[in-house]
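Batch queue: ligand-bound targets. Current item pairs a single chain with flavin-adenine dinucleotide. No template structures supplied; prediction is de novo from sequence plus SMILES. Inputs echoed for audit trail.
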Amino acid sequence: MTTSELVGTGEQAVVDALRAAVRGAVIGRGDPGYDEARRVWNGLIDRRPAVIARCAGTADVVEAVRVARAHRPVVSVRGGGHQVAGSAVCDDGLVIDLSGMRGVHVDPVARTVRAQAGATWADVDRATQLFGLVTPGGEVSRTGIAGFTLGGGMGVLQRRYGLACDNLRSVEIVTADGAVRTASREEHSDLFWAARGGGRGLGVVTSFELDLHPLGPVVRKALVFYPYDQARTVARGCATSPRSCRTRSRPSSSCGASRRTRRSRPGCTAPRSSSSEACTRATRRTRNRCWRRSPSWAPR
Ligand SMILES: Cc1cc2nc3c(=O)[nH]c(=O)nc-3n(C[C@H](O)[C@H](O)[C@H](O)COP(=O)(O)OP(=O)(O)OC[C@H]3O[C@@H](n4cnc5c(N)ncnc54)[C@H](O)[C@@H]3O)c2cc1C
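Prediction returned. Tokens below.
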């Protein structure tokens, strides 16, 4: 069945099948809350799915996947709904929406957290910080952990604890055959490999198990800006400073200046005629040196 066939009677069949099988809300085009349910973080996205299955748990996800197998609509998967292109919603198809699945369980002894795939970083941080623990998340707390972790996940703690995907221990995933699988280094390791950064389209992840590290509850953060002509001194200082003092040394993409401005700056190492790419090379060299000096600093 194609997307266009789904619109009309086919669409109603999908809605009916979901209503019969799914415990969470099933929201069709005419239902109250439809416009709210199809909205994502990027307000420019205006897609109109045929139906949104707001799953209440893994069993609902399995049922939604089974309905998708039987009726073959276009399917999109929604975690936190923060992806800028709005890939969490589709036109005329089925949205498997996990935004209601936000449970978080912390095991402070094993130093792991298990979070459902609709959780945001705010949900996870709130629970882990009760124990003074953290897993490296995003810079914005409303971002969903699902798309973030499956896409790799870079955040403010990456220099200390790596990317989100470096801290992934396992995922529970509903694959396209409707089976619930655990993927980890030991089980379905190929699936796990793909979930650590390249993980879209593998299935629907229902929960993530992540490593925890000590941090907080009081965290200090400062953004320090130096004049451009001190860039070399600052970069050298970063390279030799104690680990605890290291910052995200990013002299504004090297210099962040236009070619015209750069020419007048005495500290700039780029040749006069070079592109901005050449100008960033000096900083990249310094950064690479930092990583070589302290391999534990680099993402695992
Ligand atoms: C304000 C803002 C700040 C951001 N900050 C950062 C940042 O600091 N670091 C960083 O690395 N990225 C950042 N991002 C990018 C963000 O990580 C990605 O957009 C990510 O996809 C958002 O996750 P989500 O669950 O909210 O995505 P959604 O929009 O819900 O989903 C995006 C896609 O991920 C896949 N997906 C989502 N959930 C699942 C699931 N359960 N199972 C299988 N596939 C799924 C689907 O293919 C879906 O189309 C930011 C984005 C925004 C808008």
